């Protein structure tokens, strides 16, 4: 660390990587990255090289002393790392496509992080990520693991429960809301205090203060302007929002406007296939751009890809951990009593002070009674999913799916689980042992 | 109390009352009732007289020194009472009919205790019951209130939260399971230990021991024999039951087999109207029987009415409170830490030791993770319902309905709430103040 | 178990054993003991034979089919046992003498269960008892361990934390209070409800109801009659008792009347040596009596020995576990949320319902604020003592002693710990490893 | 607030006030004080004028637009205030003298914040402070109350429990430790992270990181350099500190080194009277200095007075509340689950992030088991003291004193309480009602 940091990106061949590179360049004076290792699996080598070469051109142009390493040797990369970030997709976009399509056949929301789709993604991902943790425990025990891999909340809790790695889960959704507020109110972000209450992709904003003045009540009366790109943005019922007394995240539409969202998904699927197919086309275009040997900066088109603030979230967190800035970020951490109705180990998404020795969650000043049951119901599903992922127990997997609020009944759960496990057979060795 | 107890039955004109009388007669040596006051409202006076006269004939035949009083003067009845029991139906069977019918129009379960129907029943009942509590606080501060009025769990919690009356909620469902086990295994009931986990009409049995030997695993493999009269008894999915590791109560079919139950309700409604209409016909027949001046015992037909063990539950509880028998009964009491994820005041339905100074809940030895979220989700709805009943706040009522697991989305909740409140206008002065 | 139970008494050569035998004889119809194994160590063989032969004569006289086995082979005895009871004294009365004498030199209470003396007893005993647990886990995994060995609360918690054996801690003190009440009020014990709040040898009685009528307030005004034989009985300050609102156990005099108790101990020590010496003389006389081949019943003199109700406590508990009587007994069990300020694993002494599958602690209806701090302070010492006993860590032992409320300061703690550990060197291999 | 803040200092005639003035001048760019109201009682008017005139000269010299108001009209001062700070001494130094002297007669620590002395101070102060809160609730409901009045923890909890005023308790002790570390390690204070665990005047430092590197273990090996001016600084036992694993605050010497501290107090008392007498002489000299019309800055001698960092603590907190800086300060706030064994309302002294809408306590990363009991024991005393102060109930006051760890037994507690209440009769109307 004497002469700079070693940072590892697992899933380095992702189309998001140029975002990260841009961040590392911009904040190099505060986060002195010396080596950046982009790691991917054999099947992703081609993309890794394209995006890796773009990264090298970007660094070269910056004139900064950052070394870019491209490798499929994960252990070599992890050795003595200071920060490891993950942005993986086990099963790639094909698996995502199945996560999105199969539930629709049963009249169930098909989404890659919420509902049965997210559950499958968790079952595929957790064992792989715990393998990575084993490597970090051995080769870089002091490293911080920044987990962007979705479903980020579940995956982060799996790491807390089954590994000693120091780990934080990240999502760009809170940062997105703050950006939106910054623009809408034309203030610097330090003047805004937003309180996030809940879990990853299941949070409510229960306080928005600007210069200490509460702005949420007014905002709940005018919801027109609020939307986001990668999630449908149908309007909320105003009477509902007012009595809710909180701003629900985009993902809560799956729970509160289930029928509308399902209909929209079904229409969209009929029109252009699942979202995975759309993303695939976007990615192909991005990689075409990245391949241009004259390109040495992040192309504008990447921003439309949806993960706008991932880079900012990651670089912010590393910077604050590195410098002990004690600033407030919204992160996925262990509950430890913040919600008195959830287990201590439950991952939650709340405001944290980022100290040098890790994020400390801030107590919540307003947890509406209304939302406690839903938080607990989803957390129950999440815990069961983690247990199923680790044990390969079909009974537990069934209980997870039955008790997910978006799965309408046991009968559908049984059938849906059967088909989805089968469809993911190649990525679920814990459920389909060899021999 | 020196020469016997004063017992008051609010809603004494109910068709169930002969059950109670029979119990008081049978256990008079242990529960020396001196005066039994049957109270009803003006509109129920005719039925009160029919059932009251039957009661008098039953007592006369027994030769016991029990005085039967019939009155519409509630305060006179309550004065210095030892036990007050309630079995009311605010709005009578007509209101129940609406509770059952209106949700069906929106594709939502229509049931008098679970879901939007139960919510309306709670909104109608809580203010009336709290009025009764005011009378008890003033006129019989040491009395025990035994609440059979449904939704018993919600109503009991409302009393705990908004009154100082010593109160317990009762349901015949746990006693029914124990009866079933007693028959099925041919043992005396003392040799059976069953652990109930959950809320009223939302419980799971997580332990059944006979002579200390665990019998539940075997029972979960053979669910054929298990059913009940007043709730549809479609079979459970065996794989689901096995991994659940607990026996769900009949009412959980509304949550776990929602589509099947809805379909059954819709078919039944098309065939013979709502359940309220069926019950009405049965009641009319019962009262015809009760009017027979030669009848001086509980007629057999009453048992088919559905509330088989209400009498037993009520007399058992009074008997144990009176004698301090320290036996174990399954009751609705304040949580006080039994479930570490629910508020202290939450009413829960669990095993209690009935001491002379009240029931003490026993710690639970097995609370499956699977069911915590659902318990919390329903308790959230219950708390909001109580708050709405007491305040008449439509926003809170909307949140209650939105967050009920059986209500599919905000849009339906808004419409359903609007129609149901309107349909109950006469019984909801808190929502429709005069002026 | 088909033809009766196998019961093992570790420390069977104790002078208390005839009490137990008498109990097994009296309640044989409810607790069908087939084999009773009295186990002791080589050094206690002589006493074991004396008391064992008396036991045989007592059984013979009763005509019951109970086999008495005397052995030093613990594993042979434990094999397939149904109940194991322990009443050990590691280091025998000589060690007790040191536990009582050394603290007095430093102006600190010298007592065999409370304070530094009790700590030393715990350090000597816990490893031995955990060895016994290893045997039970292996040879009789379904057996219940009834632990009478003092300090019973600490030792029971050590077993809960470091073994899987099903275990309960017992003390005769609560049964003694109930006996006293039974006599004083001339009622049967079923008509009395007493609520015990606290830890072993550190409890308060916060409710005494007779026939449901509260009797405690009156009793707190008249404390003359209340005393016990084996603990000094100086009177409590009446104003203190009234505002305490609870009856403190005898052992609380060490905390509330420290100076008086210390002075009394010092005077008694000057007069007749430590209590161990007194007990030794009593025991010698008892064993002389026991040796009489014509004696075939429990001699009256045993009752003056002090452990009056041990037998009753043990037989009661075995009987209720065996028959699942669901009666209420005051036992040492894991906290599990009964005290919301103590860890779940903390052993506490409270009322329990004894079900066939073990005791379930009843919730407390009245925990005075005043006593929470003292309970927590003593529990802190207990936890540290267990940790020190298991690890042999002197630093933890020092923290335990420093934080005991009866140890006045760090300086004394350092010196006292040093001298007491050294004096117990032969029985503390964890602190004085060989080599 | 548009053109600056209104700040009120209750007890403005204190000798500490020039410290505050200096702070307001130095940080005026960040904390734009427009009006500063120094309030005192009639009996303190002379001192108020002396210190107030010095304040005016200091402001004049600074050239800043701060108006100084001197008044005995508390309500006029509080009207529309932004910040109210209190630094009162009900009964003045004479009462402190008694707090310090009387316990010594009984062989008990005599100290103005810890033990029976602190208890009396709390009984005198709480009713007065709650009166001030009534004024703030009425006249300046949005004001923040910064409470420096000792015993700050108890007083702050009394305000939380019995008033709606937004209030924080402050102490200069944590800031003192950080200053000491800053000097000792020659680093800027932002590079230091210290975790404070406990209550006001009863805290342990369980983490000291400099640049993220743990420094505490090393510090616990070398305790020579650590001392403070206004509390005796006898050395800690090194073996004790090492196994404690935490740095105890100065005030913990009263608990851990009771005999030594008592002896020192007794010797000091014999030599120069109680500490109150010493302080009185220092104050007289200070006021002589303050009276010099040529003095227009804080005199050096004030620093020796002992309250070195009070000003810094107060100005820091106002500044952070005003600007929402989200920095970390060690403050007295409501527990709200930070310690899972204390009530939610308990005041605790821990690190907080100071947001614009108030301080949010940070979760603790290391709470040693050893100290939980002592924290709970002292908090028990504190709660009882608050209850006694509000009700004037002697029985509760007796329980408070009996259960204070520094009071050796009930007998002394009874006598000490009697004498101390009597000695404070003029300031305890709740215990000595007129008539």
From TrEMBL, chains A, B, C, D:
Binding site for substrate: 96, 150
Domain Glycosyl hydrolase family 4 C-terminal positions: 196-407
GO BP terms, alphabetized: carbohydrate metabolic process
One Pfam family cited in the UniProt record for this chain: Glyco_hydro_4C
Region forming the signal peptide: none
Domain of life: Bacteria
Gene3D superfamilies registered for this protein in UniProt: Lactate dehydrogenase/glycoside hydrolase, family 4, C-terminal, NAD(P)-binding Rossmann-like Domain
Required cofactor names: NAD(+)
CDD domains: GH4_P_beta_glucosidase
GO MF entries: hydrolase activity, hydrolyzing O-glycosyl compounds; metal ion binding; oxidoreductase activity, acting on the CH-OH group of donors, NAD or NADP as acceptor
Site (Increases basicity of active site Tyr): 112
Keywords, alphabetical: Cobalt, Glycosidase, Hydrolase, Iron, Manganese, Metal-binding, NAD, Nickel
Cofactor info, note text: Binds 1 NAD(+) per subunit.
Residues where Mn(2+) binds: 171, 201
Record has RNA-binding as a keyword: no
Family that this chain belongs to: Belongs to the glycosyl hydrolase 4 family.
PANTHER family named among the record's database cross-references: 6-PHOSPHO-BETA-GLUCOSIDASE, 6-PHOSPHO-BETA-GLUCOSIDASE-RELATED
Protein name: 6-phospho-beta-glucosidase
């Amino acid at each position: 660390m004497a002469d700079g940091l070693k940072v590892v990106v697992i899933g380095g061949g992702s189309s998001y990587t140029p975002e990260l590179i841009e961040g590392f360049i911009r904040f190099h004076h505060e986060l002195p990255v010396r080596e950046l290792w982009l790691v991917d699996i054999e099947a992703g080598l081609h993309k890794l090289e394209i995006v890796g070469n773009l990264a090298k051109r970007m660094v070269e142009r910056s004139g900064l002393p950052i070394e870019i390493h491209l490798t499929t040797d994960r252990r070599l990369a992890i050795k003595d790392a200071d920060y490891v970030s993950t942005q993986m997709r086990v099963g790639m976009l094909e698996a995502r496509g199945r996560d999105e399509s199969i539930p629709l056949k049963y009249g169930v929301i098909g989404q890659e992080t919420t509902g049965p789709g997210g559950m499958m993604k968790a079952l595929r991902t957790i064992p792989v990520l715990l393998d990575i943790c084993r490597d970090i425990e051995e080769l870089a025990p002091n490293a911080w693991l920044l987990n962007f891999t979705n479903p980020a909340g579940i995956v982060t809790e799996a790491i807390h429960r089954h590994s000693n790695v120091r780990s934080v889960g990240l999502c760009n959704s809170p940062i997105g809301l703050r950006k939106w507020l910054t623009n809408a109110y034309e203030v610097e972000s330090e003047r805004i205090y937003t309180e996030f209450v809940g879990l990853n992709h299941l949070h409510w904003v229960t306080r928005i203060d600007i210069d200490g003045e509460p702005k949420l009540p007014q905002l709940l009366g005018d919801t027109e302007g609020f939307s986001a790109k990668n999630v449908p943005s149908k309007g909320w019922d105003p009477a509902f929002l007012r009595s809710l007394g909180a701003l629900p995240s985009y993902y809560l539409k799956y729970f509160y406007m289930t029928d509308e969202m399902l209909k929209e998904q079904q229409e969209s699927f009929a029109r252009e296939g699942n979202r995975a197919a759309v993303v695939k086309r976007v990615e192909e275009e991005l990689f075409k751009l990245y391949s241009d040997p004259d390109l040495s900066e992040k192309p504008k088109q990447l921003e439309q890809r949806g993960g706008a603030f991932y880079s900012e979230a990651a670089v912010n967190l590393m910077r604050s951990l590195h410098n002990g800035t004690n600033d407030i970020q919204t992160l996925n951490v262990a509950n430890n009593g913040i919600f008195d109705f959830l287990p201590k180990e439950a991952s939650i998404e709340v405001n944290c002070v980022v100290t040098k020795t890790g994020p400390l969650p801030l107590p919540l000043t307003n947890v509406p009674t209304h939302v406690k049951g839903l938080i607990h119901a989803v957390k129950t599903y999440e815990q069961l999913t983690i247990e199923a992922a680790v044990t390969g127990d079909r009974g537990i997997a069934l209980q997870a799916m039955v008790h997910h609020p978006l799965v309408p009944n046991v009968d559908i759960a049984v059938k849906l689980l059967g088909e989805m496990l089968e469809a993911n057979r190649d990525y679920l060795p814990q459920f389909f042992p060899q021999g």
